[in-house]
Each structure stands twice: as C-alpha cells, then as structure tokens.
Specification:
By secondary structure, this protein is α/β, with parallel strands linked by helices. It is built from 12 helices and 9 strands. It has a 7-stranded mixed β-sheet, with helices on both faces. A two-stranded antiparallel sheet has the order 8-9. β2, α5 and β3 form a beta-alpha-beta unit. α3 runs parallel beside α8 and α4 crosses α7. The two termini are 23 Å apart. The structure holds pyridoxal-5'-phosphate. The site of pyridoxal-5'-phosphate has 15 residues, from α4 and α5.
Length: 368
C-alpha cells in the first residue's frame, strides 16, 4: 500500500539528528522557554527573512495571537472585518472569530486555488482592517495587487503560512515575510513538522512580536506581572530542538516534493483530470498535490482499491460547517466546486519514484 503520508519514514530520514536534538533537550534539564526556543526562533526568523520569530503552541494559536495582539495594540477592535479566502482550512477563520472579528469570505481563483486578488476590493468596507492570505497547498498566494490594496486601504496583511514553509513569492522573498505578520504551524504532517504540536509567529514589528510572546505566556513578560489576559501557549524545548534539526533539511525536502510534483505533472495524461497549474516553480512547495476531477469520489475509490491512499482537502467548506451555521445558506460556487472535485495525491520527501510511477499509471488508466 502507498500511504498518503509516511510520517515514520520522514522522521527516519533525519533520525540521527532528531535523536541528538531530543537527547540534548532532555539532558539539559530545562524544558520550556530555554536555549532551544531561543536557537530555533533565531534560525527560523533568519530562514523566513523577518526580524522576529516567536514560538507558540500550534499554528491555530499563532494566528489567534496575531489578531489578539492587534486588538491589544488598538489596531483592531471587535466587529472589525478581516478578508479571508472562502476555501481555507477552518483554522484561518477560527483565528478571526476567536477574537470577535468578522471574517469576510472571498472566493479563490479556480486556476490557482488561492484568494482571487480581483475580488478583494469589492469586499472592502469601512470596517475592514486586514487581509489574511493563506498560501494554500504550499503555493504562494501573495501578488503585487494584494500588496497595493493593503497600502491603499491601510490594511494589515497577515499570512497563514501553515502549509508553505520555504516557499518563495515571485520577488524572491519567502512567504511568511511578505506582510505585517505570519502564522506558521509545525503540525507533524506539515512541510516543517514537529513530533507533536508547534507553531510560530514571524514579523518585523517589535511591538507585535513582544505582544504575541506575552499573550502566549499568560499575558506576562515579567514574572508574576500580567499585562494581558493571556493563555499558556508556548513551544516546548524538545519540539524546538527537533525543529532546528529538521529546518536544516527543509529546502532539500521541499526540492524533493517539487521533483515528485513535476513527475506527476509530466506523467499524468488523462483528460478527466485537472492538474495543478504551476507558472513559477519557486512559488510552490507542494504541501499538497491537488488534482481535480468531476469523478472525484470514483477516482478516490479506484485508487484505494489499487492500494493508494488519498485525502480530500477539504471535504466541507467552512461556510457549510455547523460551527458557522449562520453562513450555511450562502453560496460560494468556486469554493464549493473545489471542495466537490479536489483530491490530494500522496506527496512527501520520502515517496519513491517507483511509487509515483505506479500512481501515474493508475491515474492514466482511470476511466479507460
Ligand atoms: C494546519 C493549518 C493550520 C493550523 O495549524 P495547527 O498547528 O494544526 O493548529 C492553520 N491554517 C492552515 C491553512 C493549516 O493547514
């Protein structure tokens, strides 16, 4: 069987360095807010290209803390609006509503699956304070037009970089340093994954970095002095050590994902299947390899019957979820089409060419 994602094999591909990192953290006798966090934050900020990186407990919290910090800093207040793609993982939207801000859903471009820059301006109102772009599936969502809109309307640009560590925008900067702040997830299955939960906020804004760090530490930057009603949302030392070890290999791991993606794109020739359209190979790190077909459920079953695991990202769009029942009657046709047609093929740094070729053969024989 070809697994959708073989996490054990991914860990084993950097086993010695991960084991050394875990041992170093364990042997240090210091498990939170120590040298490993300091080291990883410095390395990650440098990697992304920002002045600051702040380790937090997970990717959802990273996004929550960015908006909460803007509320604490007086930049936003409850009821203000944040523009966000309608076809994202639910966490992007939860981070907005968690802060009593109002998500304004904008349809994606059917060719890129990223927020459609042409549809942003019509969604702006006097209450709009930010745009949250999501580099979905590992592909850069930033465009110059989005940057210009943010400037013209004085909006904060926040990036959800949970799926795109190591990706570049067309100007050669990495995603995660393109806007005012970015949230990153180190969930084990992400391109840079910990051995448990982890996340980070990157920014060039010292006040934002300070506020996020404080919020994620009970609202305190001085022991027993509490400025905000914060929470405990810290990255632990063992995860930080593991992430330092894996960060060294991220670019090469992403390169392998791209090689796999290229092999799929060159090999799959089936008129029933729509492949990802790649215009710039630097601006995609293929967290997901998304294809589309009207026969999605049949294809998924056909692949499963032939020993290939696939997933759907995502089966139910946010506006059809029970937690957002107030939106259930709304219609976002492009978003709904993607959710009805998308299928994610196995892709990772450890999948073999032989496995990819087997999948290509199956894809080409589907419906023959
Ligand atoms: C994974 C993910 C998150 C949340 O990250 P966690 O670490 O799982 O909390 C947020 N946004 C997107 C787009 C994601 O894929």
């Amino acid at each position: 069987m070809i697994k959708f994602l073989d996490l054990e094999k991914i860990t084993n591909s950097h086993k010695t360095e991960i084991d050394d990192a875990v041992k170093r953290a364990v042997d240090s006798g210091w498990y939170l807010q120590g040298k490993e966090n300091e080291k990883f934050e410095k390395e990650y900020a440098e990697f992304i290209g920002t002045d600051y990186a702040v380790g937090v407990a997970n990717g959802l919290d990273a996004l929550i803390w960015i908006f909460r910090a803007y509320v604490e800093m007086g930049v936003m207040k409850p009821g203000d609006e944040v523009i966000v793609p309608a076809n994202t993982y639910i966490a992007s939207i939860l981070a907005i509503t968690e802060n009593n801000l109002v998500p304004v859903l904008v349809e994606p471009d059917i060719n890129t699956y990223q927020i459609d820059p042409e549809k942003i301006e019509e969604a702006i109102t006097p209450r709009t304070k930010a745009i949250l772009i999501v580099h979905l599936y590992g592909q850069n969502a930033y465009t110059d037009k989005i940057g210009e809109i943010c400037k013209r309307y004085n909006l904060k640009l926040v990036e959800d970089n949970a799926q795109a560590h190591g990706c570049y925008a067309s100007d050669g900067r990495r995603t995660g340093c393109l806007g005012d702040a970015a949230g990153h997830s180190f969930y084990p299955g992400k391109n840079l994954g910990a051995l448990g939960d982890g996340g980070a906020v990157t920014t060039n804004d010292p006040e934002l970095a300070r506020t996020v760090r404080s919020l994620a530490n009970y609202g305190s930057s001085k022991k027993y002095v509490f400025k905000y009603k914060g929470r405990n949302s810290r990255l632990d030392e063992i995860q930080a050590a593991v992430l330092s070890a894996k960060l060294k290999h991220l670019d090469e791991d992403n390169q392998r994902r791209k090689d796999v993606a290229r092999r799929y794109i060159e090999g799959i020739k089936n008129p029933a299947i729509i492949l990802p359209k790649v215009t710039d190979w630097n601006s995609h790190v293929f967290h997901i390899f998304p294809i589309r077909t009207e026969k999605r459920d049949e294809l998924q079953k056909f692949l499963a019957d032939n020993g290939v695991q696939t997933l759907i990202h995502y089966p139910i769009p946010p506006h059809k979820q029970e937690c957002y029942r107030e939106w259930n009657n709304r219609s976002y046709p492009i978003t709904e089409q993607i959710h009805a047609e998308e299928l994610s093929l196995p892709i990772s740094p450890v999948i073999t060419d032989a496995e990819v070729d087997d999948i290509i053969k199956l894809m080409n024989s589907f419906m023959d």
